[in-house]
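Q: May I have one protein plus its fold?
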Amino acid sequence: MHVNGGMAECLTVPLQTLIYGEGFEVDELAPAEPLAIGAHVIKRARVKSGEFVLIIGAGQIGLGTMDSPYCRGYSDCVRR
């Protein structure tokens, strides 16, 4: 979903887009957003195994983006 105003005080989203974290503690759910953003970046960029990708920044989203190819089963990822 791509809409402006994600940092707004209130935001309305369709119910079917929500994922409930039942059975998890808040500290277990905290990394979910940066990891999801990283996975979304790799998917939108249509990165294929063997391609080179430059990720600038080692914050939470950058780290999530670096881990995403491993989660997609790519074995030839290089971290430097």
